[in-house]
Write a structure and sequence with these properties.
By secondary structure, this protein is an alpha+beta fold. Helix 7 packs across helix 8 and helix 9 packs antiparallel against helix 10 (about 455-465). The longest helix has 21 residues, at about 490-510.
Length: about 775
């Protein structure tokens, strides 16, 4: 048996290969591992944080049916649904694990025979250009995707550079082979979403264009350049606008056949070829946020030739570099797959949003040039401030510094003068609650990651937090809470604002701004306004100061919370957990609360109508599939029995993270679920980003090495690690015992050795 086969079977010890610098960590990445029952992870090709995320789309459901929201569209947040029997095409932009969606730009589909510009339906694929396929003929790995399209036996292969998608389609012999370019297709599509589309055919193998859409991102323009390796013999277009009210004098031309200057709300193209048996036609599609000219420049710079296999290799080298930031040895191969798939998922978003010359379109819709930083977009901050950005501060601080610089540029270009809430392609879609860019900015400054002007950053944070007309901030400032009669998510808003205000206070303290520190320290305690001691839970309160009478602590809908119930959200005071514990009645009360949270049974009626949570994402009443509870198990550390945190954390990992296409118990949410896994598997977690503390849990790794950008290395060892030994007997850093189950960033930033002694028996001595 040869060495490669032994490596594939996992018969050699992984650390041996890591030490020998021969480990191919991408072999443990399974891009098809996605969200349970929801398919919110795309399985296609991309490089780390690439602007192009090229992936198959498996259906074309409309966002609305008869003017009403179509609940089935939720399954297609990433465009791909594992259980679907057909593929409609391969588009170039996707979100990973979001609970709402957009994108799906520039969809390509190879076909043969009669030109079909309608996708058809899953039950009658012969009526359109879509094709059945089998998972037996589908393969995905970092920066490479392959599938056989059964309808015409066309093999499709995909790879990418940062800004260019490269396609390779191998055709049977035919004098009627086609590449369909559907510029009407999109994720969460609806009539009227395409504002305008332009195509210019430059020659018999190159075309450029753009399309502007009005969706989750209100004004989003994607410019593109497309080139084929073989000249097309004919091309044609179809406008999907019906008969326009006014069409000027363009009627003088036949715009459907071989006409090079096209513009309409909706355009579909077909490029026609003669093909020999097993002939491969390649296509390059470059994207730009700025112009068609820049899209061509991006293509020339990143993908100048037709070496498809070379682009695959270059992208995989980039993935190896990204994955080697943490070198882990696990209990078994399944855990290695989970670990490095989590590393992969935590390296997909946010995405690069600028051209090779540094130009990008800003929030003001003007063209800007990123000077000294890489500009990024797609910040799902309600999710990612919790663990993803703290992970970046550890393993990729220079990237996180660029992300903060992108946020500051967003603020500078904002006519509202606010940091991003949910940044999205030169827009803000304002999704979810809180102003959590504050957490990311402050954490990066306090940890020394961001070297920009801290005074300006503090001003941006303060200005954002004082935007009175945004989601109840004015009443929150005046009354100390967001009133229930003014907001349907009044409690969660209050709790999240309070945490963000605490972050602002920490930065103000560092900069010596005593007045700002005092103001925001007081605001950081506003969470207390909504704690109802008579029931022991957070509860909505109206403008008159009266708690809501009709209230269900188990219900997620209409109770004052977003994506969580009061049982879970009442624990969301990450910046002042001990104060919350005392308000609840002390350590024993908190411990009993946590015990009940994990052990009680949440009836189906409380989540059966909730899109983003299924039974798969719940343990008792603890909802891991939504982010507000991600710190909760660690709260056992401040009770008298910290061992319960270790028990629950191992339970969560084993219950919520699996191999297979339905591997996650909830949306990955742009890497947050995966970042939680990575921190927890390493044995510590940032309960309150912007605090200099990671809370110790129960590591899953046998050993790991975090390779810092400064050349230092944090070595982690879990001695006596096993499936049964989930409890931590002792923790030492550089030989010294840790106190209070806490590890500081200042302690580990220059590397060292963190050693856990694992045991199968909990330490039940009172702490």
């Amino acid at each position: 048996m040869n060495i490669k086969k032994l490596v594939y079977l996992g018969l050699f010890c992984v650390p041996y290969f890591l030490k020998a610098q021969e480990a191919k960590l991408i072999q443990y990445v399974k891009p098809l591992i996605g969200t349970a029952r929801m398919g919110h992870t795309f399985p296609g090709a991309t490089v780390p944080f690439g602007a192009v995320q090229l992936s198959p789309d498996t259906d074309t459901l409309s966002y609305a049916v008869n003017g009403q929201y179509n609940g089935d569209v939720y399954k297609y947040c990433a465009g791909y649904q594992y259980d679907d029997p057909t593929i409609v095409g391969f588009s170039h932009t996707h979100f990973s694990g979001t609970g709402h969606s957009d994108l799906g730009d520039i969809q390509i589909m190879p076909t043969q025979g009669k030109v079909q510009l309608n996708p058809g339906t899953a039950d009658r694929p012969e009526d359109g250009y879509r094709s059945p396929y089998s998972h037996a003929n589908e393969h995905a790995e970092p920066n490479y995707y392959r599938v056989l399209l059964d309808k015409h036996q066309i093999k499709a292969e995909l790879t990418t550079t940062t800004r260019v998608g490269i396609h390779r389609y191998t055709f049977p012999a035919s004098d009627a082979s086609h590449l369909i370019v559907d510029l009407t297709a999109g994720i969460y599509n609806y009539d009227g979403k395409n504002v305008w589309t332009v195509v210019k055919v430059l020659n018999d193998s190159t075309l450029v264009g753009y399309r502007q859409t009005n969706g989750w991102s209100r004004t989003r323009t994607v410019y593109f350049a497309l080139r084929t390796s073989k000249p097309f013999k004919n091309y044609g277009a179809k406008y999907g606008d019906g008969k326009p009210v006014y069409n000027g004098f363009w009627r003088k031309f036949d715009q459907q056949n071989n006409f090079p200057d096209l513009a309409a709300h909706n355009i579909k193209l077909h490029l026609d070829f003669d093909t020999k048996a097993q002939e491969a036609i390649l296509m390059k599609v470059a994207l730009s946020p700025v112009s068609m000219k820049n899209a061509l420049s991006n293509m020339q710079e990143e993908a100048p030739d037709w070496n498809f296999d070379g682009y695959v290799k270059e992208g995989q080298v980039a993935w190896e570099k990204e994955l080697h930031k943490i070198e882990a040895d696990m209990l078994n191969k399944e855990d290695l797959v989970n670990f490095y798939t989590a590393m992969y998922h935590a390296s997909l978003m946010p995405t690069v949003y600028m051209d090779v010359n540094g130009e990008y379109k800003g929030l003001d819709q003007e063209v800007h040039k990123a000077e000294g930083f890489t500009n990024y977009t797609s910040f799902s901050l309600w999710d990612t401030f919790r663990a993803f950005h703290p992970l970046m501060n550890l393993i990729h601080p220079s990237r996180n510094a660029d992300i903060v610089a992108s946020m500051m540029a967003h603020y500078d270009q904002s006519v509202l003068k606010m940091l991003p809430i949910w940044s999205h392609y030169a827009n803000d879609n304002w999704c979810m609650s809180g102003y959590h860019a504050v957490s990311v900015v402050v954490d990066a400054i306090l940890k020394g990651t961001y070297q920009g002007n801290a005074e300006e950053a503090l001003q941006a944070c303060v200005q954002t937090a004082n935007t009175r007309n945004y989601e109840g901030i004015g009443p929150y400032i005046d009354k100390g809470y967001v009133p229930d009669d003014l907001s349907g998510t009044s409690v969660s808003n209050t709790l999240e604002y309070a945490y963000d205000d605490w972050c602002i206070a920490q930065l103000a303290k560092k900069l010596g701004k005593e007045d700002i520190y005092a103001t925001f320290s007081k605001r950081a305690e506003h969470w207390k306004s909504l704690y109802d001691p008579s029931i022991g839970f957070m509860r909505p309160k109206d403008s008159k100061g009266t708690f809501r009478a009709k209230f269900d602590v188990l219900d997620t809908h209409g109770q004052g919370f977003i994506e969580g119930n009061s049982w879970n959200y009442s624990l969301y005071v990450p910046h002042q957990p001990k104060e919350l514990m005392e308000l609840m009645g002390g350590a024993q009360k908190l411990e009993s609360y946590l015990d009940s949270l994990f052990s009680m049974e949440l009836p189906d009626k409380y989540f059966e109508h909730t899109e983003d949570i299924t039974r798969d994402g719940i343990i008792g009443n603890y909802v891991h599939g939504n982010e507000p509870s991600h710190h909760v198990a660690y709260l056992y550390n401040i009770t008298q029995n910290p061992w319960k945190a270790q028990q629950r954390l191992r339970q969560i990992i084993r219950n919520q993270y699996h191999n297979g296409h339905a591997g996650l118990g909830g949306n990955d949410d742009c890497g947050q679920m995966s970042a939680w896994y990575l921190f927890t598997a390493l044995g510590f977690y940032p309960v309150a980003p912007a605090a200099d503390a990671y809370w110790v849990g129960s590591p899953l790794v046998k050993s790991a090495k975090i390779n810092f950008e400064n050349g230092k290395q944090l070595s982690i060892m879990a001695r006596n690690q096993s499936e049964k030994n989930v409890y931590v007997k002792s923790v030492r850093f550089n030989g010294k015992p840790l106190e209070n189950w806490s590890l500081s960033y200042e302690l580990i930033k220059n590397g060292g050795e963190l050693v856990f002694e694992m045991t199968g028996k909990p330490d039940k001595r009172k702490h």
